[in-house]
Specification:
This protein is of the alpha/beta class. Helices cover about 20% and strands about 35% of the residues.
Amino acid sequence: MEGLILKNKSNLYQIESKTDHKLYEAMARGKLKQGDISPVVGDVAEFTVTDAESKSAVIEQILPRKMYSKRPKMANLTQLIFVVSSKDPKPDLLLLDKQLAFAEFLSVKAAIILNKTDLDKKQQFRMIKEVYQKIGYPVIETEAKTRKNIDQVRQLLNHEITAFSGNSGVGKSTLMNAIFNQEVAEEGEISSKNKRGKNTTTETCLYSIGIESYLADTPRFFYF
């Protein structure tokens, strides 16, 4: 059988079958551990079911990857969406430019979300939006807590394997919870002292959001 690896925790992988979309808990075959390739979230793998009742399986082989990121370790992403906070924390445009360059390096689509626009009373985010739209990037303004423009974000996710990337505190987890309309990711807090976010996501995992559409929750941002 073939399946998509959705999660890895302590070398136990959650894999979704491509034929019936059932979820299995799988270990990697020993020869994989000894070789150059270790399974990562986003990999498409061949696996054998060892116990249908308990949905246990063994990963036999990793199929060729379309892309691979070392930090965080992920495979086969088709889109990166960079989340920038309009305020608290303030926009880090240098980091955004580095992330856009990394998306080009990975040969994946890139888009930008300007979150917390309600906190930007001077509406400086509009200048940021104009600059990046002019060079061809889709830009969506959001207020994750009120679900403003979440439908636009959902449309961007259709038929893609997408990861959110951005500094702690910009609202990635809040956006994810708004998209799924339930709490799938732990939301962080902003330090009252330095207005920076506290990182809450500690592992990478993929969530299904429709037919052949997945969204990754990842720790912080992508980098070389």
